[in-house]
Design goal:
The structure holds two protein chains of two kinds.
Chain A (H helix, E strand, L loop, with lengths): L5 H48 L4 E10 L2 H4 L7 H5 L3 H12 L6 H8 L5 H12 L7 E7 L2 H7 L16 H12 L3 E5 L2 H4 L12 H32 L4 H14 L3 H15 L7 H25 L3 H9 L4 H29 L3 H5 L20 H9 L4 H34 L1
Antiparallel strand pairs in A: 1-2, 1-3
Helix pairs in contact in A: 1-18, 4-6, 10-13, 10-15, 10-17, 11-13, 12-13, 13-15, 14-15, 15-18, 17-18
Chain B lengths: L1 H12 L25 E2 L6 E12 L2 E12 L3 E5 L6 H7 L10 E9 L2 E2 L7 H7 E4 L10 H12 L5 H14 L3 H4 L12 H14 L4 E5 L7 H14 L4 E5 L3 H7 L2 E6 L2 E7 H6 L4 H7 L5
Parallel strand pairs in B: 1-11, 4-9, 4-10, 7-8, 8-9
Antiparallel strand pairs in B: 2-3, 2-5, 5-6, 10-11
């Protein structure tokens, strides 16, 4: 190498500066472009879900003048409660519709007329009469839930300009619905059914209650199993276990377990919990056990990382004043590691909340109408409910699918917010 | 103290001059020499802690070679030496802090009041309560100032009531010269204090357990000169009640605070004697080179 004067060196460095800064700027731009692309796709995804899902939060009601005629209901004048419960309320709805549109004569048209009102109408009326038997023999104007197809027309989702064969709402129905609307007999309300009902074959009667309860119970089991076991395992492995071949092997296997496809855990659950231990199928208990197995490696790994990140000087400080190993861990290391442990655990839980595949294996994919009231009741979970609805051909379920996704995402955001909140709270202390 | 520091400065300034080395013991110092006879007075009559033929290994590497040294009761023993000479390792062996490091192995004999601290029945919790430690970097717990000091007494059950605990905390903070500065913010986090205050908090924390011996591992290396001076004053004040062994990189500090000084070099205890003796009349060439600033 030839000798260089410092002036030459400075000149050489100056010449290279421009290139170096250009490289840095270029790199920053790559980053910005990558982030922007990510945001664009996220925006497209979210807006699609929101646009499709928002209508599901409202539903239309149609006002009918119902006469609770004993002949129509098929009951006697002095009806017993049993008679009232078994009365033919569908007939009352039908006669009311016929009275409103007297021009309908052919049975084919009648069928279409009846399809304006949801099948749930008869249950609504039955419940009203059971609550207040004095209604029998009177006439009253009652708001009844519209059929999902009629509802989707009223929501403006069905273009009347499209050929009749391409839509489920027929021309005659459109005429009737327009008449009802002009008479002020239709109304859009908040869809409480969506939150209060279980699954149903009729889109307008379907709700996420069963899924929500199922998810709640499943997460409960998962949390109370995976969190303590995972954190304890992490503490033991990190603080107490000797470093040898066995612990190395355990560590490698925990890392491998975190990468095992979730459906394998489902198969394991099916073989072990259901077939071997004979636990009930479709139950949140088994779902929670499977999810706990699935989240355990995540919790162990993140907790170990959080414990490892605690500065050794804190351990020394505690030991220096004569704290025993376990006091050091529980008084000092764990509180400092807690934000990391909680973040990891909540992310693991959020992952489990959105998981579908392993639950399909243990039968949580069943059609469940009632919310489970315990850990062993058959139930479904929110993501499986979404999966089921996404599979349904009815237009009404499309918006329900998106709406359920919105609810699920709401819970995920909530859980992440909780993680952030807990992290802040623990860090301030 | 101050005249000793002046001596230290003077000898330091003489470093450039060629010193007559005739009467000094000239050694071609070899790190693989296993046998070495320490010069000076490693043993004292009223020993609080005694180390005999201590060897310390990190895996295969030997960090301390056959060191025998006493820490006298109510004295301040300074340990000096260039980086990597093993003085911190030796210090940490005195309260078995090295146990945390799995590859570290201690051989030989270390006693506290004539009890072997490496005996299998010896309880490290009790040992560390009796032999407290202050570390190089201030390491208060991320808890309140009060909790920092109260932690030791609490886990050892030294206070029967809240009032008694308050008393211990106040006394410890007073002894550490920190009470006046923090008395209105005892519930504030200890980590929010300045570096010097944090270190004094750590000393208060060590004092609160009322140990017999306090080990200090370069307690001022992370502090500015003013904070260091404050800590040195503090050491001077508390030495009435405690036996102190301090590792330091600052010769002036060793000269100012200690009664005896031990000079370590490459894992061997080269020379030990009264601080005055070591700084005014070092016997070994290596000691002289170090304190006159020729290397280190």
């Amino acid at each position: 190498m030839s000798e260089r004067s410092s002036v030459q060196t400075t000149a050489a460095i100056r010449a290279s500066l421009k290139k170096r800064y250009a490289r840095e700027r270029r790199f920053q731009w790559y980053g910005r472009v990558a982030v922007s692309i990510g945001f664009v796709f996220l925006f497209i995804l979210l807006s699609d879900i929101f646009i499709k899902g928002t209508p599901a939060f409202t539903q239309h009601f149609i006002k009918l003048s119902i006469s609770f005629d004993t002949d129509e209901l098929g009951i006697s004048q002095q009806a017993t409660p049993d008679e009232i419960a078994g009365a033919d309320y569908a007939a009352v709805v039908k006669s009311s519709l016929r009275a409103m549109f007297p021009g309908v004569i052919s049975s084919k048209e009648k069928k279409q007329l009846y399809r304006l009102i949801s099948l749930s109408a008869e249950y609504t009326l039955r419940d009203m009469v059971i609550a207040d038997p004095k209604l029998i023999g009177t006439n009253s104007e009652i708001w009844l839930l519209a059929h999902s197809e009629a509802g989707s027309y009223l929501k403006g989702q069905v273009g009347a300009d499209r050929p009749e064969s391409e839509r489920r709402v027929k021309d005659v129905q459109i005429v009737w619905l327009d008449t009802l609307r002009e008479d002020g007999r239709t109304e859009s309300r908040f869809n409480s059914t969506f939150f209060l009902a279980g699954d149903s074959r009729e889109p307008e009667m379907a709700g996420i209650r069963a899924g929500l309860y199922g998810s709640f119970f499943t997460m409960l089991v998962t949390f109370f199993l995976a969190f303590p076991i995972g954190v304890m395992a992490a503490i033991y492995l990190e603080e107490f276990a000797p470093r040898n071949r066995l612990t190395d092997l355990i560590e490698i296997n925990i890392n491998n377990l975190a990468a095992v496809p979730s459906i394998v855990f489902g198969l394991l659950g099916l073989a072990v919990f259901i077939n071997f231990f004979g636990l009930p199928r479709s139950a949140p208990l088994v779902g929670g056990l499977v999810m706990a197995l699935m989240t355990l490696p995540t919790i162990v790994i993140t907790s170990r990382a959080a414990i490892q990140a605690v500065s050794p000087s804190i351990r020394e400080a505690a030991m220096g004043v004569g704290a025993s190993k376990i006091q050091t861990v529980f008084h000092h290391v764990l509180p400092i590691a807690m934000p990391g442990i909680l973040t990891g655990s909540i992310i693991g839980m959020a992952h489990a909340l959105g998981e579908t595949a392993p639950l399909l294996m243990i039968g949580m994919v069943a059609f469940i109408m009632d919310a489970p009231s315990g850990l062993t009741d058959p139930s479904t979970v929110l993501p499986v409910q979404i999966y089921l609805w996404a599979d349904s051909p009815e237009r009404g379920f499309t918006e329900k699918t998106s709406a359920a996704i919105m609810v699920l995402m709401g819970f995920l955001v909530l859980m992440n917010a909780l993680a952030i909140y807990l992290r802040r709270r623990f860090e301030l202390k | 103290m101050n005249d000793l520091a002046a001596v230290a400065r003077e000898t330091g300034s003489m470093g450039d001059k060629k010193m007559p080395i005739g009467e000094k013991r000239q050694l071609d110092f070899q790190s693989d020499v296993k046998e070495y006879q320490t010069i000076g007075t490693p043993f004292v009559d009223n020993a609080k802690m005694s180390a005999r033929n201590v060897n310390i290994f990190y895996a295969e590497k030997q960090a301390i070679l056959d060191v025998s040294l006493d820490v006298g009761c109510h004295e301040v023993l300074a340990m000096i030496g260039p980086s990597g000479c093993g003085k911190s390792t030796f210090l940490r062996a005195l309260n078995r802090m090295n146990d945390i490091i799995p590859i570290c192995k201690v051989e030989g004999n270390i006693t506290l009041d004539n009890e072997d601290i490496y005996e299998s029945e010896q309880d490290t919790v009790l040992l560390r309560a009796r032999v407290g430690m202050v570390f190089q970097k201030p390491n208060p717990f991320p808890k309140s100032i009060y909790e920092n000091v109260a932690y030791g007494p609490r886990i050892h059950g030294l206070a029967q009531s809240k009032a008694e605990m308050d008393e211990i905390v106040e006394l410890s903070l007073r002894r550490a010269g920190l009470f006046g500065e923090v008395k209105d913010q005892l519930d504030k986090p200890g980590t929010g204090l300045s570096g010097g205050q944090q270190q004094r908090l750590c000393i208060a924390r060590a004092i609160a357990v009322n140990p017999e011996v306090i080990l200090m591992d370069e307690p001022c290396s992370a502090l500015d000169p003013i904070a260091s001076a404050r800590i040195e004053e503090l050491i001077d004040e508390i030495k009435e009640n405690y036996t102190i062994a301090i590792v330091t990189h600052s010769m002036q500090q060793a000269a100012r605070v200690s009664q005896r000084t031990a000079y370590f070099h490459l894992g061997k205890l080269i020379e030990v004697g009264s601080t005055k003796e070591i700084f005014t009349n070092p016997k070994h060439q290596l000691t002289e080179n170090y304190i006159t600033g020729r290397f280190g």
